[in-house]
Amino acid sequence: MPEKTIKTTPCDACDKAALSKDEIGICKKLLGKETERFYCLDCLAQYLECDVDELLAKIEEFKQEGCTLFL
Amino acid sequence: MKEHAYIYADNAATTKLAPEALDAMMPFLTNDYGNPSSLYSFSRSSKKALEESRAIIAECINADPEEIIFTCGGTESDNWAIKNFVHSDLHRSRNIIISRIEHHAIFYSCREAATFSDYTITAVPVDKEGKIILPTYEISVAKRPDGISIMLANNEIGTIENIAQLVEIAHKQNIPFHTDAVQAIGHIPVDVKKLGVDMMSASAHKFNGPKGIGFLYVKQDTPLIPFMNGGEQEAGRRAGTENVAGIVGMAAALKLNCGRMLENNKKLERMTDTFHSIVSESLPCAVFNGAFADRLPGHICLSLPGISAEGLMHVLDLRGIAVSTGAACNSSSTEISHVLNAIGLPDDLARGTIRITFGADNAEEDASLVANEIIKSYKKMLS
Questions:
Q1: By the 8 A CB rule, do B78 and B109 touch?
Q2: End-to-end Cα distance, chain A
Q3: ipTM of the complex model
């Protein structure tokens, strides 16, 4: 049986290997759907000069609005 | 991490309630709760306040008090004006003229008239500044529609139309004219006699008054169908117990804004100039939309290529700044605003369009802070 491979997206700024669906979603939402740069929440918060908690609050709001980037 | 207090730069969406308006409202939210329609002495103060507020508002727009009808806001006033065209006795052509950049309160009311009352709607085009294209307008008016509704100032791009000129053309054909002045009243001088309009919509929360209250100006002797039935309030034209506190707050806010308009607008012009020069210098690709001269004070509509305005709006929010976007995310798709389409803005720029609207409560230094944060955030999004 061939080995099943799972494609993972790493953080562009640190060594975190596999970003979560929420981390990928928030990067697309804030940096643009076509972005090729993905960050973990800590690095994104640092890049945008905001708090991780604020990013988490945004993610919850986007989910409640039904944004498909977080499905 | 934020280097400044939260900056609210979305005053075209809503404004902060003026403390003077709140003070004026408080007695009617607490002890003076009498129904103005009641006949006993306890209601006397409510009734008196209602009529005094009507007189104050009328004076601010050079109208007569009996020409002011209280509504629950701009949307109701717009709906009423369009329904009045449809249900009036005219029915000459079963056609209404609007512009391509009207608010949805006008668009959707017209769509209802088209769907249920067999009306046709003529949406007159605008030029790249958002000004009505006069020859096209004149051709449409010559077909003698049942009514015309064109906004005084646009909510997205801030362009101020020459309503007096449009009214003059309409009245030569005896066509009633309504203007949605929601963004203009309390921000630029509005004189209904100089404009010549037959009806005009206003909303209190756009000029530092409370939410849920507005008015419709109806020129004397203009036929008007009742909007709501079930009581004799507002001379039998708009039934329902009046929102006395809201009405009193609206009058106080409008009087305050008209009194400080000159001084405030000078500040807003300086802020707009500061913002414009900082952004233009750092981002030569930036496009400023709307009319250059005939524009609402403090109103900036900025397009930046290669980014999503929605993303920029959220990034700015995270950086402590509230602005709005001309494109609304509909979970899976991003629709471009009909106003930006109407002025012929290319899609890439339309998708990157934000609206910055400074108001009376902004500090003058907010202009440079917001400009620099936009430049910084835009560069981060692009890099």
A1: yes
A2: 30
A3: 0.88
